[in-house]
Amino acid sequence: MSETTFAALGCSEALLAALAKRGFETPMPVQAQTIQPGLEGRDLLVQSRTGSGKTLAYGLPLLQRLSDDRHTQALILLPTRELAQQVGAELHTLVPKLPIANLVGGVAYQPQLRALQMGSPVVVGTPGRVKDHLDRGTLDLSRVTMIVLDECDEMLNMGFLEDVETILAKVPAGPQTYLFSATLPAPIAKLAKRFLKDPVQIQLAEAGEHAVHADIAHTPVLVPDHQQVRALVNLLLRDQPSSALIFTKTKAQTEEVAEELTVSGLPAAFLHGDLAQATRTRILGQFKDGKLRYLVATDVAARGLDIEGLPLVVHVGIPTQLENYIHRSGRTGRAGAKGTSLALVGWKESRILLAWGRRGGLQLDWRAVPTPAEIREAQTVKLLDGIQGAASAALLTQAAQLLKDADPVRLVAGLLGLVQAEQSAGFELPNEPERKAKPRFDSTRERKEGGPRPQRSYAERNAARGDSPRPDSAFSKTRPDGSFKPRSEFDEKPRPYVKSKPSAAAGPRKAWEDRPAAKDTPRPWKAAPTKAWKKK
User: Fold this and answer.
1) pLDDT at 407
2) What angle do CA 328, 333, 334 make, to 5 degrees?
3) I want to staple 37 with a disulfide (CB 3.0 to 4.6 A). Which of 42, 388, 396, 448 is the partner?
4) Torsion 204-205-208-212 (CA) sign
């Protein structure tokens, strides 16, 4: 956090009062470096990670520089509908009476057309719907003086960069432009060079490709792919987080995981791009308000979500790129709060995660899947904590009456059955070495880093389970006690292979076998084709 104040940066009295009402006293690092040059009208090229307070970093100077005119003065482009609606709501908390047009896909056009016709100084939207309104002639950008490109690298990843360039080309030359991006790949740098004029470049220490978020603990779990959902149930039952955002790779997986969690007594909802916008908004509202504890979503559906106080992010399988993993994990540990990023990975993905740990400076704290016994122990501790704080005088009297006529142990057991009737006890997963072992080493460097143990051989794994070694090319035939013995101990020696001549007892060869193969001589086993069709 910065030691400066919003007042020292030049914020107006109205904005200072709105910030104080929301409890914002000192600006975050990205805000401390961007607000003053933004108020001066400078272009900004800011490289900062997600969750660092970027909305206020460009929102405060943008709101203060607006005039009283009702035409469109500022345009804010973002990669997803949810993020656009979130930014619009954030600006409304600072200036409640400000007309803002939210131009996003998946919703009806009429409310958007009405907002544009009434006059909205600020337009917040996604590139696709904004371009659509431009093509229809319902959006006029001829008097725009400020443009914000937020999460620009994500717009590039989602294929929106061409639409962004088309939109910017329709804005008159000279608007103040803010470009925010966690990374600066070549297409983004080219876009900035084309549309920004002498920008103030700000690169925070935590930004960039190898970003390390000190407030996020990375705790991967090694578990086979087909057991990952059940392992997730055990982990949630053991840790009992107040809420969790769970990422999956496909839309179908979101529904499967949410169903399994709900069946196990962990009510969850799913979120993906095929849902209607009204349904997505309702589910997100329930999750933000704490009415929904677990939300299972795809990357695109949850891009840019800002959930206050989210303690846990879960990856059911990791994404294909480190940058996407960083973005996923950035949903927790926001605004100085602590958070945990839990990844369920198989053997192949564990190797990728280890490489990302070295490349991105991630401290990986591997853990095992909790057993049902560990889950019951954790539930008992939480239950005792809750009981000790809820013992009123009336309840103590009722408890004394119950203890007069019943065995205490049976009484407590019955009460536990009622309390935990709808809650799963967890899954008894197979006690395979892969469940608690970790990926094998590729170098001594990983050993020094405290990485996983080497993979064990088949014989070692079977010995750990109490089984006999598997027969392979080095083992055959059993001893009297049932164990295998090597070929060197065989009683019989294999006889060398000798090609034998045909026996006379087999009889004389057929005549056609002795006859030389003539080109036009038909073989007995290959009859000549009939020419009956030529006689007709």
Assistant:
1) 79
2) 95
3) 42
4) negative
Higher pLDDT, 114 or 361: 114
Determine the Cα–Cα distance for residues 333 and 447; give it in Å rounded to an integer.
29
3-class SS of residue 295? strand
pLDDT, residue 278, reads 84
3-state helix, strand, coil in the chain (%, to 5): 40, 15, 45
Q: What is the DSSP letter of 367?
A: B
List, for residues 204-235, the tens digit of each pLDDT value. Answer: 745 444 455 667 899 999 999 889 999 999 99
The dihedral through the CA atoms of 37, 41, 47, 52 has a sign that is: positive
- Residue 100 main-chain phi, psi, to 5 deg: -125, 130
Please give the C-alpha separations between residue 357 and each of 289, 352, 534, in angstroms, as whole numbers.
34, 9, 79
Regarding predicted confidence, which is higher, 60 or 184? 60
Asked if 201 and 162 count as a contact pair (C-beta separation under 8 A), the reply is no
Q: Where are the alpha helices (DSSP H) in 124-274?
A: 127-136, 152-157, 161-169, 186-195, 228-239, 251-263
Q: Which residue, 428, 425, 427, is CA-closest to 265? A: 425
Mean pLDDT computed over 448-459: 48
Tens digit of each residue's pLDDT (9 = 90 or more) over 485-536: 454 554 445 555 555 555 555 555 554 455 555 555 555 555 555 555 555 4
Please spell the DSSP secondary structure of 421-443, one letter per residue: TTS---------HHHH--PPPSS
Of residues 39 and 308, more confidence is placed in: 39
Cβ atoms of 217 and 362 closer than 8 Å: no
132: left (phi over 0), alpha (psi -120 to 50) or beta: alpha
pLDDT classification of 106: cutoffs 50, 70, 90: confident
Helix (H) or strand (E) segment spanning residue 45: strand 44-47
Confidence of residue 123 (pLDDT cuts 50, 70, 90): very high
The one-letter amino acid code at 31 reads Q
Distance, CA of 373 to CA of 379 (rounded, Å): 10
Mean pLDDT of 34-60: 89
Contacts 24+ apart (CB under 8 A), 352-359: 352/318, 353/220, 353/318, 354/439, 354/446, 354/451, 354/452, 356/322, 356/325, 357/218, 358/449, 359/210, 359/322
Q: 355 with 214: CB under 8 angstroms?
A: no
Burial category of 34 from C-beta neighbours within 10 Å (exposed 0-12, middle 13-18, buried 19 and up): buried
Measured CA to CA, the distance from residue 455 to residue 98 in angstroms comes to: 61
pLDDT digits 0-9 by tens, 68-83: 998 999 999 998 888 8
Element (H, E) at 534: helix 532-535
Full 3-state SS string of 438-492:
CCCCCCHHHHHCCCCCCCCCHHHHHHHHCCCCCCCCCEEEECCCCCEEEHHHCCC
How far apart CA 313 and CA 339 sit, in angstroms, is: 8
Tokens of residue 329, six digits:
């994990």
Q: Residue 10 and residue 30: Cα distance in Å, rounded?
A: 15
Angle formed at CA 435 by CA 430 and CA 437, multiple of 5 degrees:
140
- Answer yes or no: are the C-beta atoms of 127 and 163 closer than 8 Å: yes
